[in-house]
Amino acid sequence: MPAGNSSSRPHSVYQLPDLRSFLRCDVSKGKMLANWTDGGGEGFEFVMGKWQPYFFACGEANGIHCNIGKMKFFVIPFLRRWNF
């Protein structure tokens, strides 16, 4: 059982390939980035290597946490001006 109280449920993090998968909570074509044991302690790191939207969801029980609990989020990187 992950850290937390006795009612905690395990979670995993999947990167989803596109907006459609994100909206449908379809983790079948997603890539697992972390399972429920990876989130303890200092967690894990994800590096955004491209300038594109990134979609993430909990993949436990084939996406049930995403569907019912809405455990999903997306990141859209913005360019920023560098001051030297």
UniProtKB/TrEMBL annotation:
InterPro entries xref list: Cupredoxin
Name of the protein described by the UniProt record: Phytocyanin domain-containing protein
Organism: Linum tenue
